[in-house]
Amino acid sequence: MEQATLPHPDAAGEAARPGVILKEWRARRKVSQLDLALASEISQRHLSFIETGRSAPSPAVVDRLARELAMPMRAHNVLRMAAGFAPAHRERPLDDPQLAGAREIVERLLAGHEPYPALAVDRAWNLVAANAALAPLLSGVESELLAPPVNVLRLALHPGGIAPRIANFAEWRAHLLARLSAQVDASGDPALAALERELRALPLPRTAGPAPAGSGQAIAVPLVLDLQQGRLSLISTTTVFGSPVDITLSELAIEAFFPSDEASRAILADLAQGAATP
Question: What value does the mean pLDDT of the chain take?
Answer without folding.
Answer: 89
